[in-house]
Amino acid sequence: AQSVAQPEDQVNVAEGNPLTVKCTYSVSGNPYLFWYVQYPNRGLQFLLKYITGDNLVKGSYGFEAEFNKSQTSFHLKKPSALVSDSALYFCAVRDIWDYKLSFGAGTTVTVRA
Amino acid sequence: DAGVTQSPTHLIKTRGQQVTLRCSPKSGHDTVSWYQQALGQGPQFIFQYYEEEERQRGNFPDRFSGHQFPNYSSELNVNALLLGDSALYLCASSFRDTNTEAFFGQGTRLTVV
């Protein structure tokens, strides 16, 4: 079985400040990990993924995430948030022996000007 | 390069009716997955189609069925609609069983009244 937990329903930050969105996961094997962003009434937009290799992965729009195997975490970060980063963020995991993505419940990010 | 396209964008049906949703995958992709996203929740995996066959299914009843055509496009059919089937239905495409990320369409908003 595989699952994802996003412990924060909402994250509020001021523009220009660092942004962190937390994610922990559970899989029986090795994980493939993903972050997606969703804007109102839209589908999911891919941000970044961890498959193997360097634990720090860089993605679109200045986002990055750090894979921590011992803590089973994959937190999303951005050094300087923009108002346009305000959206709903989903962490997802897939066991390498599985085909489905399991998503967290999502974290709403609000960046105030 | 067209991404994943879904039709229709919105749909209103009555309880007990049947509905068909359509998806065209991103160019070069041969695998299609369907997800249900209820309001305020993360997407839930319904099933995945590859080589015109359902190769994995999530915890959804048999009222949910699908099909994949030789051109890799796909349909999701839901019979005997319930009020609880109201959700955003997302189609995602990917390339075979590699570690590539899934690309999502904008979704079909189904409302059952």
Structure description:
The complex is a heterodimer of chains A (113) and B (113). Helix content of chain A is 0%, strand content 53%. Chain A is built from no helices and twelve strands. Chain A has strands at 3-5, 10-14, 19-21, 24-26, 31-38, 44-50, 56-58, 64-68, 73-78, 87-95, 102-103, 107-112. In chain A, a hairpin with a 4-residue loop joins β8 (64-68) and β9 (73-78). Chain B has 113 residues and is an all-beta fold. In chain B, 0% of the residues lie in helices and 50% in strands. Chain B has strands at residues 5-7, 10-13, 19-24, 31-37, 44-50, 53-57, 64-68, 74-78, 87-94, 103-104, 108-112. In chain B, the strands form two sheets. In chain B, strands 2, 4, 5, 6, 9, 10 and 11 form a seven-stranded mixed sheet that branches. In chain B, strands 1-3-8-7 form a four-stranded antiparallel sheet, with no helix packed on it. The chains are: A mainly beta (113), B mainly beta (113). The A-B interface holds A 4, 32, 34, 36, 41-46, 49, 51, 90, 96, 98-106 and B 4, 6, 33, 35, 40-45, 48, 55-56, 58, 90, 92, 97, 99, 101-107, 109.
How are the SSEs placed, and which strands pair?
The complex is a heterodimer of chains A (113) and B (113).
Chain A: E1 3-5, E2 10-14, E3 19-21, E4 24-26, E5 31-38, E6 44-50, E7 56-58, E8 64-68, E9 73-78, E10 87-95, E11 102-103, E12 107-112
Chain B: E1 5-7, E2 10-13, E3 19-24, E4 31-37, E5 44-50, E6 53-57, E7 64-68, E8 74-78, E9 87-94, E10 103-104, E11 108-112
Parallel strand pairs in B: 2-11
Antiparallel strand pairs in B: 1-3, 3-8, 4-5, 4-9, 5-6, 7-8, 9-10, 9-11
